[in-house]
Amino acid sequence: MAAYDADDIKVLFSLFDADQNGKLGKNEVKELIELVTGERSTEDDQAKFMQFIDTNKDDVISIDEFEVLVTKYFPMAPLGVRNLFKTFDSNGDGFVDKDEFNQVIKDKADNLDERKINFFKKVFTRDDSDKVSYEQFIDSATKHYRDYVANRNN
């Protein structure tokens, strides 16, 4: 399995760094734990996580600490963003066009998570072109996550 490259780490980190200050604080760590585990986290869960990951004990997770977490404990993308993109990029040209998207939905809809389908639909809604590149997809994924966190906390 391929290792993360520096850009993968930055993209993943930015998904959780909602306030874009270069650190994951208490609320961002809570979101990270809940997204990875799929369950609500308690303050005790968060404290144990911080004790384990926050090696310099400054009560935040730096990108370096995050990189250790991801590369050591998640050998492939925990969010599956690249794999999700590749699922829809059926011809492998680095773009997903609306025809590819619709064909994958038609062929594999029963095997795909409805949230992932709806997310990808939103990518096309935000972009007026008929094709979406991986970079556009990542930008949209990052914005979607930040909007989700902002709306969830309000």
TrEMBL record:
Tell me the keywords, alphabetical order: Calcium, Repeat
Record Gene3D superfamilies: EF-hand
Gene Ontology terms for molecular function: calcium ion binding
User: Per the database record, which ranges form the EF-hand domain?
Assistant: 4-39, 76-111
> GO cellular component terms?
myosin II complex
Q: What SUPFAM superfamilies does the entry give?
A: EF-hand (SSF47473)
- UniProt xrefs under CDD domains: EFh
Q: InterPro entries, alphabetically?
A: CALM/Myosin/TropC-like, EF-hand-dom_pair, EF_Hand_1_Ca_BS, EF_hand_dom
Q: Is the keyword Cell membrane in the record? A: no
Q: Does the keyword RNA-binding apply?
A: no
- Name of this chain's protein: EF-hand domain-containing protein
